[in-house]
């Protein structure tokens, strides 16, 4: 009996079996959580926007402001500065072994619910991702899972969240690859797929969700239209970059406002309310407006207005401190852009172009690809939403081009820009350049040995022998930097017997310098560009006041020390040096 029990344990109680079983559980719970979230959001949105007072100007304008005030007060009370969004999930999987605090993820889901119900111009997919990662983190914490399984379960939750939000299980899997993990290993593939599938099954059984209903679209002219879709991709990339820049420009502006942080979401909501009073289409998620664009029901003037106002409304909602997702707003903006472009080409080339709705559909995926930098996810979401394969070729073309153009105009995505501002540059699920988070100020040598302009090569030789250093700054009598002299200068410019030669005759006068607020990444590149081993650190005020010196060996030691510190803190050990 014991042998049989041991055989069963050896065969089934494996890492793969445990991860797969937990993935199914996470997928089911994530699906149920999203069902509850969606039902509550729909109920309160209907309640708030279908009251007898919903036509009163003051009610329409103040409702988003009231929602913003609630978000601000609750986040200040329960979360302080610890907000949790998709960027934090990416950061956790890349740097912290997947470890996030599930309670903050669930708090953020609740805050996004308030934002959407009161008219905030955001999407519901980020709450789905956070609900899933919160479920995954809770399961992993309760079972005291090791880091590799913790990261896998977080990915399962994110996959299930996207699958539930869009009824797109394949897109959920690919989203994890492109955005969350950056890669999908064999041991994580099956759990992520299982979670996505079971989450979709739950939402499908309970909701009976149907894809967006649109007319049949295809390419009218295989010879002329590809060029038009290329142009469409370029325009989508430009709009995507504007979408990102506008969001963070608004966030920067709100951070500078001299008011209490918990009042800022209310101010952002007030702006959204003022916009929504004239154009209520920008309130909330906006699926109905997207459907109108796909079915050619909106005039070109309205499409243009809604394109601009949706970007502004989203920026004020999120930039002021509100909560919600960026995917649906990017789909909204893309459908408006595509509708505009489609109407224009229909007017210019009426007999050789598809209806405007076809371009709206392609525009949705293209702008989303440029905003999130996930072109394959964009293609799959559109395909799974519409079940229409006929536009897959122009969709692929436009998504790839938009991704390239948007990346050229703004290197980071809507998610990784937030991380870059914290000093993390994450690519393919890992931080590619730890040194961007380290500054010269914290790693330079402040007690600098130097020479005066009146000293000779004999003094230089004595200083080298005593200190074992190979280079020194040269200062004038006022302590201002005049040059730098090295062992290389000594060998090349001083002949035997010339020890009384002034150092000013052999020093390098055109000195490359560093500033204390620069990152070690920038300094390392400057060292390589000038082929030197050290840089004097000077004040930005005048560029000649010496405050320290930094060497290549200092940078290497700082990098090694930072890696050790991060590993000791339980962060991911798969960090890569930038240009070392």
Fold and architecture overview:
The model is unreliable at 569-580 (pLDDT under 50). The N and C termini lie far apart (58 Å). This protein is 62% helix and 5% strand. It has 22 helices and seven strands. The strands form three sheets. It has a three-stranded mixed beta sheet with strand order 3-4-5. The relative contact order is 0.10. Strand 6 (534-538) and strand 7 (546-551) form a beta hairpin. It is mainly alpha-helical and 580 residues long. Helix 2 (15-49) packs across helix 6 and helix 10 (225-256) packs across helix 17 (392-409).
- Sheet with most strands: 3 strands, mixed
Distance from N terminus to C terminus (CA atoms, Å) equals 58 Å
Number of helices: 22
Spatial arrangement of strands, main beta sheet: 3-4-5
Gyration radius over CA: 29 Å
Structural class: mainly alpha
Name the overall outline: elongated
Strand % is under 5%
Number of strands: 7
The helix content, as a percent range, equals 55-70%
Q: Which terms would index this structure?
A:
single chain, 580 residues, mainly alpha, three-stranded mixed β-sheet, two-stranded antiparallel sheet, 5% strand, disordered C terminus
Write the layout of secondary structure elements.
Elements: H1 2-12, H2 15-49, H3 57-78, H4 86-95, H5 102-117, H6 125-142, H7 147-166, H8 169-181, H9 186-207, H10 225-256, H11 264-278, H12 287-294, H13 300-319, H14 327-348, H15 356-372, H16 375-386, H17 392-409, H18 416-420, E1 426-427, E2 430-431, E3 451-452, H19 457-467, E4 471-475, E5 481-486, H20 487-493, H21 520-530, E6 534-538, E7 546-551, H22 552-568
Parallel strand pairs: 3-4
Antiparallel strand pairs: 1-2, 4-5, 6-7
Helix pairs in contact: 2-5, 2-6, 2-7, 2-9, 3-5, 3-11, 5-6, 6-7, 7-8, 7-9, 8-9, 8-16, 10-13, 10-14, 10-15, 10-17, 11-13, 12-14, 13-14, 14-15, 15-16, 15-17, 16-17
């Amino acid at each position: 009996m014991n042998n049989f029990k041991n055989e069963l344990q050896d065969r089934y109680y494996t890492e793969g079996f445990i991860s797969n079983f937990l993935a199914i559980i996470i997928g089911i719970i994530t699906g149920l959580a999203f069902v509850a979230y969606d039902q509550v959001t729909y109920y309160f949105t209907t309640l708030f926007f279908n009251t007898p007072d919903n036509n009163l100007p003051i009610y329409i304008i103040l409702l988003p402001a009231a929602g913003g005030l609630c978000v601000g007060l609750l986040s200040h009370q329960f979360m302080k500065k610890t907000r949790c969004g998709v960027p934090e999930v990416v950061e956790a999987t890349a740097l912290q072994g997947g470890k996030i605090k599930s309670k903050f993820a669930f708090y953020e889901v609740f805050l996004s619910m308030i934002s959407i119900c009161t008219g905030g111009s955001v999407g519901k997919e980020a709450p789905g991702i956070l609900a899933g990662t919160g479920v995954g983190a809770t399961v992993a914490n309760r079972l005291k899972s090791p880091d590799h399984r913790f990261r896998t379960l977080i990915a399962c939750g994110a996959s299930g969240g996207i699958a539930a939000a869009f009824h797109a299980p394949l897109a959920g899997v690919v989203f994890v690859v492109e955005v969350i993990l950056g890669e999908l290993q064999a041991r994580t593939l099956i759990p992520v797929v299982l979670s996505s599938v079971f989450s979709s099954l739950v939402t499908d059984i309970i909701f009976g969700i149907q894809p967006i209903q649109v007319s049949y679209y295809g390419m009218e002219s295989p010879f002329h239209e590809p060029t038009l879709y290329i142009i469409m991709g370029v325009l989508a990339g430009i709009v995507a970059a504007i979408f990102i820049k506008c969001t963070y420009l608004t966030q920067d502006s709100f951070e500078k406002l001299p008011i209490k942080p918990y009042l800022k979401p209310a101010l952002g909501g007030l702006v959204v309310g003022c916009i929504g009073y004239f154009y209520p289409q920008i309130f909330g998620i906006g699926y109905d407006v997207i459907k109108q664009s796909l079915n050619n029901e909106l005039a070109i003037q309205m499409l243009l207005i809604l394109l601009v106002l949706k970007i502004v409304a989203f920026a004020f909602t999120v930039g002021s401190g509100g909560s919600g997702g960026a995917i649906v707003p990017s789909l909204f903006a893309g459908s408006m852009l595509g509708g505009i472009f489609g109407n224009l080409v229909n007017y210019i080339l009426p007999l050789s172009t598809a209806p405007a709705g076809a371009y709206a559909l392609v525009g949705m995926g293209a702008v989303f690809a440029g905003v999130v930098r996930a072109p394959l996810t964009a293609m799959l979401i559109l395909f799974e939403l519409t079940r229409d394969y006929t536009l897959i070729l122009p969709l692929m073309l436009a998504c790839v081009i938009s991704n390239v153009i948007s990346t050229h105009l703004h290197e980071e995505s809507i998610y990784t820009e937030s991380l870059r501002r914290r000093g993390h540059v994450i690519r393919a699920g890992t931080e590619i350049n730890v040194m961007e988070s380290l500054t010269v100020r914290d790693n330079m040598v402040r007690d600098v040995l130097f020479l005066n302009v009146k000293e000779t090569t004999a003094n230089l030789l004595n200083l080298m022998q005593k200190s074992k250093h190979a280079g020194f700054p040269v200062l004038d009598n006022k302590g201002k930097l005049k040059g730098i002299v090295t062992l290389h200068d000594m060998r090349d410019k001083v002949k035997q017997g010339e020890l009384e030669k002034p150092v000013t005759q052999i020093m390098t006068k055109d000195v490359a310098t560093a500033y204390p607020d620069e990152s070690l990444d920038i300094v390392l590149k400057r060292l390589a560009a000038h082929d030197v081993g050290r840089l004097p650190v000077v004040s930005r005020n005048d560029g000649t006041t010496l405050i320290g010196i930094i060497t290549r060996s200092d940078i290497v030691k700082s990098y090694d020390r930072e890696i050790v510190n991060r590993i000791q803190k339980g962060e991911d050990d798969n960090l890569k040096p930038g240009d070392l």
